C-alpha cells in the first residue's frame, strides 16, 4: 500500500473533529513519530528491549513526519 499512497495518516486516537479539520485542510497536519515502525514481524522479534530504535531498516524511523 505504501508505494501507491500519496500520503499516510496515523491518528493515534485523535477525536473526529480535529481529524476532520486536518483532512479538509482547515488546519495544517504536523507531527513526528515518537517511536519507529519496524518493517516486519521478524524485525520486531530481533529488537532488544533495552535498546531504543534498534530495528534494521525500519519502515519509518523515530522522528519521521512533517516538519513545522
Describe this structure in words.
- Helix content is 21%, strand content 6%.
- With 68 residues, the protein is mainly alpha-helical.
- The protein has a two-stranded antiparallel sheet.
- The model has no long low-confidence stretch (mean pLDDT 87).
**Biggest β-sheet strands, sense, barrel:** 2 strands, antiparallel
Read across the widest sheet, the strand sequence of neighbours is 1-2
Q: What separation lies between the terminal Cα atoms?
A: 26 Å
Low-confidence stretches: none
Radius of gyration: 15 Å
SSE topology:
Elements: H1 16-23, E1 31-32, H2 41-46, E2 65-66
Short précis:
It is built from 2 helices and 2 strands; from the N terminus they run αβαβ. The chain has a two-stranded antiparallel ribbon with strand order 1-2.
List keywords for this structure.
68 residues, mainly alpha, two-stranded antiparallel sheet, 2 helices, 6% strand
